[in-house]
Design brief:
alpha/beta; six-stranded parallel beta sheet; three-stranded mixed beta sheet
Amino acid sequence: MMKLSNFRYEIPTVIEFGRGYIKNLNKHVQQLGGTKVLIVGDPGVLQAGIVRRLETPLEEAGTPYVTFTDVGTEASIESVDKGTDFAKLEGCDIVVGVGGGSALDTAKAIGLMLKYPGNIRDYIGQDKVPGPTVPVIAVPTTSGTGSEITRFAVLSDKDAKAKLSVGSMYICPTLALCDPELTVSLPPHITAATGMDALTHALESYVNKATQPISEALSIQSMKLISKSLRLAVIQGENYDARSDMLLASTLAAMAFNSTRLGLAHALAIPLGAHFKIPHGVVNAILLPEVMKFNIIGNTEKFIEIARIFGGKTEHLSARDAAELAVATVRQLNQDVGITQTLSDYGVEEDHLDFIVEEAMESGNVPVNPVKPTKEDLKNICRTLIVPKVKEGAFS
């Protein structure tokens, strides 16, 4: 049992979760006072016909809308600027984001810029947003980022080769419209990566120093759903129950870390993703077991509970061995869903670790990690995931 202390929990987003709920989109637009909708998506959801599933209820009701899909695999400042200019030109007063984290973060940032002056760079950092944005409805199509309810919009700056974050409860979407039907077409490798991202959210929130009773309960339920259904969602993409479990797990994990932040896996994932183009879910999956191993001594009881959630048999084991079983169960989950890469597969080498670690140490996720790391600790975590190069002539 955790020791109770003072805490605060807040989530301003309304959540509607259900199969076929996308048909209610126009009703929500009207309730929020929208007169012209900007739909923000990416080329993937456009090609998959998912954008069309949002347009149809709006057309049937005669609600004006325009569509913006110039969003890359990462949300970017450039896309926010383009989308904002387009929305202002068209006179949009409500934003509907559809897709994964990139599209939803872009939609949240555009919602901010439709209300306030300047450039999105003016709001980078924590709590710089002066008040509520225009209404934003977030429609997730992946089960991992949790961006449909979070207070963060992570944006890449191509010129600086960095990821920047706007953090404020004011940019939480007004409504998260979660329809599991929209996740069924997700390919196995993306299902796996986003599912491991959701697990990293739940687990890091659960063991970190900012955890509190409400976030803890959300993390536990999220991990139970992931343990039950991630493998099935990957190998049986049409399995509606598994898809529903994973979408709910992702949202619950986001509800947890929205108030607690995360840990070292995410601290390292941001610079690694920015500099080496490693998909966010994949880099978290690669890092998570090693970060868990490092953190065991900071929250041993929680890691024992994680081992049990993921099917580990902890009876008759010492506390340390039972906690380390959590690491083994997560490694096995990675393998089962097909994530077997190392950092070396993306070109990360020993010479890169200095600047990666320097950037990671600036993350707000480091202070809440259960074990206070040194720069050398972070390097050692990464070193375990880098395959040493064999020198020419070594076997001659």
